Amino acid sequence: MTQRYSCAVCPSADKELGAFIADLPMETSFHRVESQEVKCGFGLTGVCCRLCANGPCRITPDSPKGICGANADTLVARNFLRAVSAGSGCYIHVIENTARNLKDTALAKGELKGKKALERLCDMLSISGSDDYDKAVKVADAVLCDIYKPDFEKMELVKKIAYKPRYEVWEKLGILPGGAKSEVFAGTVKTSTNLNSDPVDMLLHCLRLGISTGIYGLALTNLLNDVIQGEPEIRMAPVGLRVIDPDYINIMLTGHQHSMFAHLQERLKAEDVTKKVQTAGAKGFKLIGCTCVGQDFQLRGAHCTGVFDGHAGNNFTSEAVLATGAIDAVVTEFNCTLPGIEPICDELKIKQICIDSIAKKANADLKEFTYETREAVTNEIIDEIIAAYTGRRGAVPMNLLPEHGNDNTLTGLSENTLKEFLGGTWQPLIDLIVSGQIKGLAAVVGCSSLAGSGHDVLTVELTKELIARDILVLTAGCSSGGIENVGLMTPEAAELAGPNLKAICKQLGIPPVLNFGPCLAIGRLEIVAAEIAEAIGIDIPQLPLVISAPQWLEEQALADGAFALALGLPLHLGTPPFVTGSPVAVQVLCEDMKSLTGGYVFINNDAAESAKLFEDIIVGKRRDLNLP
Amino acid sequence: MKRIFIDADKCIGCKNCLVACMQAHKPGTVSVFGLDFIDPALESRNKILLDSRGKCIPLFCRHCDKPGCATACMSGAMVKEPETGYVRYDSDRCAQCFMCVMNCPYGVLKPDRETGTYVVKCDFCADHNSEPSCVKMCPVKAIYVEEV
């Protein structure tokens, strides 16, 4: 019998997964939580500064200022803006590559799977062209031109994409962003040694980064990917470790850049490749979705049948997916690619290939994806993976979990598919909200983390509490991965909803939690919110809608959160974003923001208490709208 | 009887023991996020000094066998409990002479920062039903509890 690595593992909301990981003979992130249990109080509260050689300086009652004279407010705001800038930079890298891929595909007259999506984008951005390729080039150029502007030139597409009342608020506050890359640059410079010391200025800069992140990094990345890879289609799909079939050569994907896989996924279906695979003794190639790019594949799965079989799990499920032994290679292009997968790949002889140097992994071969070299690079990747398959199968143990997950998770939700499902108008959903059958909406988005409650624990428990209160939940990000694997996105989960929501779900055959896919789809949720607000004739902050990143993990999530605040939404977090050491930051984020954008942060790490707070906010917003 | 022992070679000066102490002694149940690090009422009963070579010297009340603080106390506020070995401080009995502060061989006792009317002293987190908070929060095990 194989020896367990250790008894001390972090809990998971996904009991089967938790038990599987507890029994593994190798170390995973779940095993490292205990040894990292003790956290530094200064780091947690944001009052540690190591921006200069006088540091690290920590704030205490006996040392209330750093050597330079910076107080807790300056320290915290600086650290926070640095993190939001980095997070925004990540998403801007994603939209930059996506726009470049769209442009290159169009210039080469390659396949554009989402013709309707292109039409809608052209309407939205007032772009016309001689044919689809010309239009696609112009769309991509408009995006690239904006994100490359200096910070003193405002980006032009914001006005065309943002909801008008929001744009007006941002304009009045002076937080319309200049070029997205330059805003990241400015955020980094502002927070360097002995530059900006104004906590309010730095927090307002976070809002500016939030807008550029939300409009470009999130919303536009989806819309451009829809043109390249095809639009989402509502369907039922299998999820969890059950999607791994050992008869195939399996490639696990991690990252956030769906368009970078367009060429690979098509080649895997080609006749010459199929022949090679069969010669090697496998039935074919399969792409196993993991992290957000897996969610993107799942969302657009209707365009990738035969190669993509399903989404296995979120960020912290990736080690377990590899530990099944049936994965032959990992192809990565961005986060969330945990360094912890590397020793597992070594042990199980799993080939690691990285296609974006920005996210180069220590043990991976770098095979940088460029449109020009795609044929050669893709063929190299395929040959190396086949060689890895031949070399490792039979030499490493299989440890499958075929019963994990489910076969009927509803996927394919987008701002368009949901509206079409409702009959081409938001009115049926608005009517249900007005009548009170649906009390309100909650967006449960963002990552999964392990510290705190455990893997997906707060996310899943909060979601259950919300649906039980007749609050319809929409998801985007790694939260989707955790929630779908425990079955809350199957129609059967209607049984867990409150009586009113349950009746609606049963009537329509839908789950009480609607899966919009990757964290990028927070941009889709914003479009849904804006369109519903427009249909009612109100601004976004008036909607009975709360957004939550219960288990936010990364700097990117903080940039997403800044977007939510710019949209004027109440933003719930399970744990504070390292700011509580500053009275000014807490006051601005939790109170004063209400008079600026309408949004605010509230923190709670208990599922039932948090859900009650959501309900109170929603009831308050309903009252303000004179709803019962 | 239990005592806190110090392995100064392991201390990296993160001051987690200070944070833990402040948190443990703030009235009401508060998480670390509830601490206001510039509130003068927040006091730690331990400290970390550096020696002449820059090495961290973590200092904690040792609840000494022959406690200088209790010996110097004229009002009976500072008393060595025979059963537990803890040196207990009763602020109600304190005459505020602060001879205990003068007499502490480790220099860890101090008058409170805000009013200067009582002594800030380690109570071994005796009412927490577990080991002292500072010991629990030390990430490198530079402090630990042992039976003596």
Draw up the topology in text.
The complex is a heterodimer of chains A (628) and B (148).
Chain A: H1 15-22, H2 29-32, H3 41-45, E1 48-49, E2 57-58, H4 72-107, H5 115-125, H6 132-147, H7 157-161, H8 164-173, H9 180-190, H10 199-229, E3 235-239, E4 249-254, H11 262-267, H12 271-280, E5 285-290, H13 291-299, E6 308-313, H14 318-323, E7 329-332, H15 341-347, E8 351-354, E9 365-366, H16 374-392, E10 406-411, H17 415-421, H18 427-435, E11 440-445, H19 457-468, E12 471-476, H20 478-485, H21 499-508, E13 513-515, H22 522-536, E14 545-549, H23 555-566, E15 570-573, H24 583-596, E16 600-603, H25 607-624
Parallel strand pairs in A: 4-5, 4-7, 5-6, 7-8, 8-9, 11-12, 11-14, 12-13, 14-15, 15-16
Antiparallel strand pairs in A: 1-2, 3-10
Helix pairs in contact in A: 4-6, 4-9, 4-10, 4-23, 5-6, 5-10, 6-10, 9-10, 10-22, 10-23, 12-16, 19-25
Chain B: E1 2-6, H1 16-24, E2 47-50, E3 56-59, H2 68-72, E4 78-80, E5 87-89, H3 99-103, E6 110-111, E7 119-120, H4 133-137, E8 143-147
Antiparallel strand pairs in B: 1-8, 2-3, 4-5, 6-7
Molecular structure report:
The complex is a heterodimer of chains A (628) and B (148). Chain A is α/β, with parallel strands linked by helices and 628 residues long. Chain A folds into three domains: 73-229, Substrate Binding Domain Of Dnak, Chain:A, Domain 2, CATH 1.20.1270.30; 241-392, Rossmann fold (3-Layer(aba) Sandwich); 408-624, Rossmann fold (3-Layer(aba) Sandwich), CATH 3.40.50. In chain A, the strands form four sheets. A six-stranded parallel β-sheet of chain A has the order 6-5-4-7-8-9, sandwiched between helices. In chain A, strands 13-12-11-14-15-16 form a six-stranded parallel β-sheet, sandwiched between helices. The longest helix of chain A is centred in the N-terminal third of the chain and has 36 residues, at 72-107. Chain A is globular, with a radius of gyration of 24 Å. The mean pLDDT of chain A is 97. Chain B starts with a strand and ends with a strand. Chain A binds chain B through residues 38-42, 44-45, 47, 58-61, 64, 71-72, 576, 580-581, 583, 603, and chain B through 14-16, 18-20, 23, 32-44, 113, 136-139.
